[in-house]
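Posting this for the archive.
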Amino acid sequence: MDLNALEGSFDLVAPRGDELMELFYARLFATAPAVQPLFAHADMARQRQMLLSALVLLRRSLRNLDAVLPRLRELGARHVAYGAEEAHYAVVGSTLIGAMAELAGGDWRIEYTEAWTEAFGVVAGAMLEGAAEAELLAAA
């Protein structure tokens, strides 16, 4: 992964984190309205803050990603109960990258999109591993 691109691009948008979260969820619900019912009972202010906190943690952990992988697996396991499906992960990742690019404007570079696409692949992979483990335990 291009850690410099990930860190630099996140640092571009982090000062506008609240705006990023507003933009992300607006874009997510417009792009994938089928996911909106998953948030029907969610406190969206809290949801936005939790996602932003998770992104900040990811940014801080990029140079030691192995340390955060167990937490990502736990997060994936919890998302099973929320109704998250494997197909949702790609939509969430691409929507979040798009929101970051929009917010950064002309400062966004293609390398940032490429780096975040790779990083979200790792994140989604870990979360999906946790989801699969949770589903196996539930079925047993």
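The CA atoms of residues 97 and 113 lie 7 Å apart. The helical segments are 3-13, 17-31, 44-61, 65-82, 86-104, 110-139.
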